[in-house]
């Protein structure tokens, strides 16, 4: 089964229509967010064209990159990204040459974002001092509690009170949970298991993408919601922002973000809100571990396959229980062991070995992670297997247990038997083999199995052969 797909910002914006992209680029925050997600070479192209007021031949733009073959793929990817996002447009100039021009709306608003100017997106400067001001520590705790409510609901723990109806609807519509016939309570799906082992920023971004797919049914404006998200991503943690000037649709959207933990608002009637760390850089991959550093507790994995989780979080223990056998539970500590059976159970649930390793690495002791990153920088090692954070014997064994399931492949087929003669059997068998659809044969029992895709072709051949023989 394939991994749960979570589109990044660029891939998501490619699905929008030209008019929607044009409306998004009206806002400097959106233009800057898109620029930030472009490939490095794409950013280079944009900056060189930003103050050029005429079209530039494509051949000239291509000359900015070395003609060495290894850079050709990078150039193609950058140009495709700029074209797909309509950051620039292509046209034929008077000399018959293909020329490129930055989208005027994108260009003007990116200039505003980079060099200042424009009007503020909220009237926060007119806010009085908040007597109930919240600092970063409080906002971190609040956002994690709100988000953990969603995760607790998915794992079916006792701490699932407070989840909103909107969150449940998104879990169901996204396929992370499903209501099976004869039951009333949703149960987690294979995709849901994969979702649980993703890092928190990726979970939040996936969740928001599912929400955005439903904005039309909520009578909300997709472009307006996206712009607001991008504006939040550039906000300052611990700073309050005014709700004055927000449309009715954005006020509704704000309440949904509040339910998911992306913003804090003391009460609905309050004229201010605080963006949380979940909302900062929501669509950016640069700070994937930013929120994880603010979690309490950590995990230690020993070479004897034992896991020591130094945490009070019932959710973290429940997640460990997805792929390990929990042995003991103490205050501030849970002890578990990774076994072949526990890993196979996780694999049957749709969890991948790479996700298990990533989860253990992500929750390792902060000092161990820092040492790991330093070692990788010094030695230019790959971050793929993370053996220096988790014992190599454990990492290798988890992958080996996963590969055990790949020793057999399953394919649908159609059985042919009861042939009247050895000649008929050989004729059909040879034809199926020549067509590449023969999966198995037994000469002694005159039995063959052909693939489901090749069944119709073999059957038609057999009918023609039978009529010819009669």
From TrEMBL:
Q: Which GO terms describe its molecular function?
A: ATPase activator activity; double-stranded DNA binding
Q: Where is the composition biased (Basic and acidic residues)?
A: 372-383
GO BP annotations of the record are: nucleotide-excision repair; transcription by RNA polymerase II
Domain of life, per UniProt, equals Eukaryota
Q: Where in the cell is it found?
A: Nucleus
Per UniProt, residues of the Transcription factor Tfb2 C-terminal domain are 396-463
Region Disordered: start-end pairs: 364-383
Q: In the UniProt record, does the keyword Transcription occur?
A: yes
- InterPro entries, per database record: Tfb2_C (IPR040662), TFIIH_p52/Tfb2 (IPR004598)
Q: Which UniProt keyword terms apply here?
A: DNA damage, DNA repair, Nucleus, Transcription, Transcription regulation
Name the family: Belongs to the TFB2 family.
| Function according to Swiss-Prot or TrEMBL | Component of the general transcription and DNA repair factor IIH (TFIIH) core complex which is involved in general and transcription-coupled nucleotide excision repair (NER) of damaged DNA.
Query: This protein is called what?
Result: General transcription factor IIH subunit 4
Q: Which organism is it from?
A: Tigriopus californicus (Marine copepod)
